[in-house]
Design a protein that fits this description.
There is one protein chain. By secondary structure, the chain is mainly alpha-helical. Among the domains are: 21-150; 282-420, Orthogonal Bundle (Cytochrome Bc1 Complex, Chain D, domain 2); 440-578, Orthogonal Bundle (Cytochrome Bc1 Complex, Chain D, domain 2), CATH 1.10.760.10. The chain is built from 22 helices and 4 strands. The strands form 2 sheets. A two-stranded antiparallel ribbon has the order 1-2. Strands 3-4 form a two-stranded antiparallel sheet. Helix 3 (55-79) packs antiparallel against helix 5 and helix 20 crosses helix 22.
Length: 583
Amino acid sequence: MCLFLVSIISCKQEKTANYKKVKDKTLVVKVQEYYTRHLDSCVSILKEINTVDAISEKIKKYKSARREFKLIEPILAFADKENYKSLNSPNLLRVDEEDATNIKIRSPFGFQVIEELLHENEVDVIALKDAINIAANRLKLIAANNTLYLKKYHVLWLLRDQIARIALVGITGFDSPVLEQSLIEAKINYETILFIVKTHKSEFSNTNLYATWVNELQTTQKELQKGDFTTFNRYDFIKNHAHKQLELLTKTAEDWKVEFPLTMAFNNNITSLFSKETFNVDFFNDYHQLENAMSEDKIALGRKLFNDKNLSKDGVMSCATCHIKDKAFTDGLATFPKQKRNTPTLPYAAYQQTFFHDGRAGSLEGQIVGVVENKNEFHTNLENLTETVKNDSAYTKSFTDLYGKVTDFNIRNAIANYIRSLGDFSSKFDKNINNKESTLTTSEINGFNLFMGKAKCATCHFPPVFNGTVPPNFTETEVESIGVPNIEETELDNDLGAYNIFKTEERKYFFKTSSVRNVSKTAPYMHNGVYETLEQVVDFYNKGGGQGLGHKVPNQTLPSDKLNLSEKEIEDLIAFIEALTDE
């Protein structure tokens, strides 16, 4: 991220020096003019909402302003990530906890807030006016500082991120919670993608590639008009359009002779959103310096340490004691003896930004410290851990060869690298969406479409990992309050979750959103293991979580409205989830 920011800053410092060719400068100017025009229009129409009295007219104006926002989204989301996030985030309190002395509670603002206010039974006109003014003022601020500096690799990143954003977030209803006009808005996004591609026509040496791009984008827009929010075939859309567009991006990078200066969360040559080759795992690693880079030998060393009981104080527990491979690295228990919470799965743990159920650790290496020092787990300390490893000659040789020496960090890094190697996107679902086989049943495909649509699962369990790490930037792993009941299912569970880290009142009952990959092997479910079957889990969500069950859940982030899933839809949903089980 630092390198990326440096590259952006250097672009700003160089200014027009980056665009010595008149052709290149002209292209940037065209994109700039398009961006400015629709940005200004968005501000203007937003303000007009306050000038009409009828709610129906306000909603009509809102839709027009939203259209302009969706036209600038691909550019804004790339050029100004934080402002885009604020303007398009859910109508929920935002809590930023840097440390115990720096905690910020921010009220939400932006389009989702306005959309929900407009659809209240009794519209609070004053609150609506304030929300509109805040959003309009933020957009005006952006408009005053909106100069774009886009090199060719920036353009390809921008296109890739928006294609992924539409497929993984946009078509799920994540940012259109009431109107559910996600498909309409995705089509609007593709207007801008098509504009950018057409603007860069002169960059293409391969005219057939350019023509294929235009045809594909126009076809995609037509596809988005087929079906409504509930019936749209998202599986087909991703498999036959999003993935095709990623392939075209890779070919375009070759045609334009683009050299990428660095790699973000996505690898620069991805052709699928559901593959082990999709991600740059080092992006999620705080310690990816050269000396800590992953290798097969380090993974093998980490696997040996992971299974070594001698690392614990009494020599009776290893990491594998609780994380059993055949159970997708869980233990099959509601909670392991003397533990407070359910043992989390480890495959795909690499693709998140926080660890433990409450998100209190910021890295796998940091998470391992908690295990080492927990009196009910390893019950030791980092010094003793290091001495134990040093006293083993085989370990000492391995660490000398691979790291230079034995240190507690190097031990933790080896174990962490083994954990990062777990999860290979080898499930039935992955193979089918990548055209490696054609074995998904109609029920499983329907289940995916429900997961991504009507059931709203994907608005928290984001594909492709189906956890809480938000695509396409993957810089934040969400925590949610869903109101899980206690083990007797009589009242709200008394575990306060993320609240216990800094005692932030607004974080009571919040827990990290875990992956649903491999959940067919990880029962029982939830942080306390209250549910033994997937049917029980889906029933909990179908009823609206804790609030839907009648419990008082402060700041519940899960909508309390019933999903009204039929028995057949629940059956299909579970069939899809089970198809996420790796080989």
